[in-house]
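User: Could you check the structure of this?
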Amino acid sequence: MAQVKKVALLTAGGFAPCLSTAVGGLVKHYTEVAPDVEIIAYRYGYQGLLKGDYLTVTDEVRAKADVLHRFGGSPIGNSRVKLTNKEDLVRRGLVAEGEDPLKVAADRLVADGVDVLHTIGGDDTNTTAADLAAYLAEHDYGLTVVGLPKTIDNDIIPIRQSLGAWTAAEQGAKFAANVVAEHNSGSRMLIVHEVMGRNCGYLTAATAAKYREWLDAQEWVPEIGLSREAWDIHAVYLPEAEIDLDAEAERLNKVMDTVGNVTIFLSEGAGLDAIIAELEKSGEEVPRDPFGHVKLDKINPGAWFGKQFAKRLSAEKTMVQKSGYFSRSAASNEADLELIGRCTELAVECALSGRSGVIGQDEEAGDVLTNIDFTRIKGGKPFDLTQPWFTGLLESVGQPPATPVHG
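Assistant: Sure, the predicted C-alpha cells are below.
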C-alpha cells in the first residue's frame, strides 16, 4: 500500500445524530496519528463528488474538530444520489448523457488526488460506496473506501448498532413528552406520534421504551388529573407486525372511555402495503425517490392511521405529530459519542493500511467491532419482535403480542 497523502470525506442520505460527530472524529484522529495527510470534504455527498465540489480541512478546522461533536446535522451537507441510477443523475445535471457515473466519480477522485474516501451514511450510502469500491478495484484505480454506518432505523445488515440510533430514540422520547402533554387539550383526544422507520420498527420501539423510562421517573398527582395512565402510550405499531384495526379499535375504545385519551406510537412504515394499495386503487401515483423507496412524507401514513382510528374511537380531536426531523438532526448523545469515537479510530486505522469496508459491530462475528466487507452490507434488517424488552413493553401497555407480517 502506497503512503496515504490525501483523504476525502462525504456524508450522504438522510440526517442522523452522528454525521457532524463522525466528521469531527475522523478529522481529529487523522490529525493525531497522521497530521501530514491532507483532508477534503465533498459537499452534499456524492453530488459533490460528481461535481468536484469540496471544502478543504484547514489547520483551524483541525484545531476545532471537537466543536463538531456539539452539533447535529452535517457541516458538509448531504444529498440522495445513487451512482448506478444514470437516468436520475442525467436528469439532475450531475452527469452528461452517455457518461458512466461510477467512472465520473472514480476519475474525479483521481483528479483530486484522493487516496482514501470515507463515506458516512446508511445502507443506500454504503451500497453505493460498495458499487464505487468494486469499480475502483476492477479498474485498478488503487483507492481505498472506508464506510461508517449511519441510520436512525438501526437496520443495516450485519451491523448490531448503527451510529446515531441511540440518540434518535432519546430525542424522539423528548419530543413525545411535549406532544403527549396535549392529551387533554380536548376530550376524547387521539394522539398519533409518527416515528421514522420505513421497513424497520427499531426506532419506534426504542423511542417508546425511552419515553416510558421517562414516565417511570416522574411523580404523578392523579387527584388533580395528572395521571400516568393519561400520559402513557396505549399502542405501538411497527412495519414488522400485523395491525388488526378492528381488534385494536375495540381495545383502544375501552382506553378512551376509561382514560379519556389514546396515544399511539406509529412507525411511518407500518401498514404501508395497505396504504399503497389504497392509493393505487384510487388511481393516485405513489411518489418514489432515486432508490425506488416510497416517499413516506408525501403519502403521510400518520394521517392515514389517524383518520382510521379517529372514526373507530369516536375521537373528538386528533393530533398527528412527526418526531423524525427533530430526532435525526440532534447532536450525538454520550452513548453515540463513545461508539462513534471507537468507529472513527478504526476507520482511520483501516484507511491508512489500505483496507476497504464498513466499520461496525459484526452481528455474525460476536458483535466485534471490525471492518466489514462491502459485499456483506445490506439494508432492510427487520426489528426482532421477540426481544424481551419489546414483548415486555407491549404487555405493559396492554397490547397483545406482536404477530409478524405474513407470519
